[in-house]
Specification:
The complex is a heterodimer of chains A (614) and B (494). Helices cover 34% and strands 22% of the residues of chain A. With 614 residues, chain A is an alpha/beta fold. Chain A has four domains: 21-122, Glutaredoxin (3-Layer(aba) Sandwich); 130-282 and 411-476, FAD/NAD(P)-binding domain, CATH 3.50.50; 284-408, FAD/NAD(P)-binding domain; 495-605, FAD/NAD-linked reductase, C-terminal dimerisation domain (Enolase-like, domain 1). The longest helix of chain A has 25 residues, at 215-239. Chain A is globular, with a radius of gyration of 29 Å. The termini of chain A are far apart. Chain B folds into three domains: 11-163 and 290-355, FAD/NAD(P)-binding domain (3-Layer(bba) Sandwich), CATH 3.50.50.60; 164-287, FAD/NAD(P)-binding domain (3-Layer(bba) Sandwich), CATH 3.50.50; 374-484, FAD/NAD-linked reductase, C-terminal dimerisation domain (Enolase-like, domain 1), CATH 3.30.390.30. In chain B, helix 1 packs parallel to helix 10, helix 3 (62-80) packs antiparallel against helix 4 and helix 3 (62-80) packs parallel to helix 7. The radius of gyration of chain B is 24 Å and the shape is globular. Classes of the chains: A alpha/beta (614), B alpha/beta (494).
Amino acid sequence: MRSSPPGRRARPWFPGISCTSAEAREELRRRLLGLIEDNRVMIFSKSYCPHSTRVKELFSSLGVEYNILELDQVDDGASVQEVLSEITNQITVPNVFVNKVHMGGCDRTFQAHQSGLLQKLLQKESAYDYDLIVIGGGSGGLACAQEAAILGKKVMVLDFVVPSPQGTSWGLGGTCVNVGCVPKKLMHQAALLGQALSDSRKFGWEYNQQAKHNWETMTEAIQNHIGSLNWSYRVSLREKAVAYVNSYGEFVEHHKIKATNRKGQETCYTAAKFVIATGERPRYLGIQGDKEYCITSDDLFSLPYCPGKTLVVGASYVALECAGFLAGIGLDVTVMVRSVLLRGFDQEMAEKVGSYMEQHGIKFLRKFIPVMVQQLEKGLPGKLKVVAKSTEGPETMEGVYNTVLLAIGRDSCTRKIGLEKIGVKINEKTGKIPVNDVEQTNVPYVYAVGDVLEGKLELTPVAIQAGKLLARRLFGDHLEKCDYINVPTTVFTPLEYGCCGLSEEKAIEVYKKENLEVYHTFFWPLEWTVAGRDNNTCYAKIICNKFNNNRVIGFHILGPNAGEVTQGFAVAMKCGLTKQLLDDTIGIHPTCGEVFTTLEITKSSGLDISQKGC
Amino acid sequence: VESAHSGRQDYDLLVIGGGSGGLACAKEAAQLGKKVAVVDYVEPSPRGTRWGLGGTCVNVGCIPKKLMHQAALLGDRIRDAPHYGWEVPQQVPHDWRKMAEAVQNHVKSLNWGHRVQLQDRKVKYFNIKASFVNEHVVCGVTKGGKETLLSAEHIVIATGGRPRYPTNIEGALEHGITSDDIFWLKESPGKTLVVGASYVALECAGFLTGLSLDTTVMMRSIPLRGFDQQMSSLVTEHMASHGTQFLRGCTPSRVKKLPDGQLQVTWKDLASGREDMGTFDTVLWAIGRVPETRSLNLEKAGVNTNPNTHKILVDAQEATSVPHIYAIGDAAEGRPELTPTATMAGRLLAQRLCGQSSDLMDYDNVPTTVFTPLEYGCVGLSEEEAVARHGEEHVEVYHAFYKPLEFTVAERDSSQCYIKMVCLREPPQLVLGLHFLGPNAGEVTQGFALGIKCGASYTQVMRTVGIHPTCAEEVAKLRITKRSGLEPTVTGCG
């Protein structure tokens, strides 16, 4: 690095990276974009180039601070030049950027000076209101905003909940806190308590009457808890001096966003960088009566009345979880499924999840889709007639329900936030935003995290991790990227399903069946024995790569507390878990988790895995 | 019978003791083609309690205690239920008889299962009390006094241990019971004094309290000796807030039966020297366990024991001072007294004896869980041990107080829900120990035990994405070091 003459900001250059791998190249690209972002004037030059010298002299004469990278004085100059040409379509030096705008070479810079464009661009200096504006106050957005604020940046969060077609809206915190993980786990817990109540009699607790469930009591308690979380997010933003604006954000031009509040008042804000974390909202069917009469997970958790006899449409984890807890608190529940359960998850596990639900009183209508929803009676709840048709033939059917809950998927909130104004590309079909491995969109100063990302996982902890790491990369010294591999997750169906790594189908697709060994077994949790609950229902499975030391590439468990069990195994998978290590590890007795330390039967052996009862 | 003529022995392998370790060893060896016998005999407890095949874990240990713990947890859930909208009565009584019968029936079904498994694997089973005649021959005596001689090429001692009674406390043996009896009581123990501070003591006191019984723990010094002491204090703190009474720094001196059948216990406060007195329906001794080695006539075979502990001295191969005699499980010196370690040690021993493998049992990083009302799971080193081994300046402790989501709506106190990860300070900060206090601690700890086995570092744990919302995810979110002195309380999500 050369010493900086007065008037120039010194900026340490980073050690040379040779562009051998795509990853290193991407890293370099990111760093170059960072230099362009962070410097009012950035000149990529060569120390001996006379054109470069002229440009430097021009800026010096204007009294403007600039930063230089001399390509001939860094180890990876050639790679820098290549990547620069990718970014700018210009192979020569000097390569000049003014306020993030690509100026061009020497001639173009002088032309801009003469036309006044250069001065205009230079005036934009530090005109931004914020270092970072985050659009969306959910898990990912808040994590990113807070981390950036901790790193000393001026940050704003725009969050606005557009009411659902049924009029439901909520406070700060996004899907997870308000209409996702938190309320669903609590309602799942309510259902588990129902099970515990009936178990408890077998364990000697004495009460006679069948316990009845009161929806309003539960919902109020859960909403109170959510209210306290909304509040704590507000407090936490305030403590970190993050500006929180309860307005709808929409890009109007580069670096500029329009915020519209509930009353329709508009305010514009500018920022150097933006993070899109707007998440998703439930999808509707687009059939007659759906928006008028059906509810979604956006409405269910704060529904002021018990939903009664419910039809759940869909087979996503949201659908199955909702169906599970509604049945668990004693409601008559039917699930209408177009094709497979839990698409994307291991299908053997998914079917087992479904069959447990079926054994516990939930009806499944498979290969049907609703075509019309009609209101028969008003009320809280009212009565709805649903007409559905077969996906395989002309057959139709009708049913009457108090509530129809749609859980057929979710759509990204990316189409009405002005992305087209600044040229941020989205996948036109899905609405998702493609990003590189540093969560950067095609517009370099715009990033995205969470459920809006294309090809990434829609999970709170992933969004949090991605948001936090993004802030650290943008504003701190960190380089660590979010690792989307081997992310564990759990579906909180009546029998919980925890997994990490690949499904069996995916593993076969990637590694071929003959290269895999699958170990599996049923197990009977000790607590279930005395309670007289089903044997040969809980199931454990691992998928190993035979030709990589039997490394565990897929972990699946169906049983109580699956989430608690899976977490530690996910750490182990991160550290290269093998079958041998599982065998060598001592179990904790008596737990469900210990079953993984004694797996002996391979699927390929075809041996019986059922456990004998007494 | 001469030891030199091993081919003429009755069995290739004789296992003394039909508990977790012994049965695992016998079954494995039989499966590998050996001719195997198991001798098992349960000497009735001083109160006359006896049980079937399967050893401590199945009959008077892990299984019944976890089930009674579960019964107690269900009591908590009944109290939680109204918060979640269930209309249940506020005061639900508990019927000990009904629970005990259900638990005992399950245990009996397991006894039966063990018998069947031995039969299936062609292991000969003798219900006799064994003692050595010489280094290859064991004499077994039936309940009726009939003697049988059995000889074997290899002998595995897996006789386990039994609860210890105090020797110098008047009335202790006559009026007290132990964990050998509690699970088999037909009637509720009523108001109970638990003497001791072992995990057995705390687990029993925990579930008794949870079953609405008036329960007091009397301990001489510290709780859960050998476990991380910060965690141990949190365990007892939680129990106290949950209704268990504690008499600390006290030792009993006398137990007297009153005319109405109640037990009058006199104890001494060690600090003040003052004597105090209380009456209980039941006194449960949980002051430790002694290995079942003294009736084995080990000296006739030349097997050495530690004269203080009476445990059998073993090497890494589990071999005793006599090369073809082995000891595994609770009877062996220096081994963790845990079912899964005994089971694995037994299985590995059988594999080595049959030439199937040379793998030795690895006794490091054994995970375990104490099933107190708030469960305590741990693996690896305690903070004290880590500091002792590596020096305080080389140890970094990450910790957090957290609130399980389910506790919020139920308005349960989470003051003692706490996680601590003990790491080396030098990057990447290898994890030395993990300590988890909270619901389902056993389930949470198991996977992390694997992680530690895989050599997980703090960095790797932090790179693992959490499962939301669980308690286990809090482990992957530990950010605050003890050294920083910052407030370790987790607030909100993220």
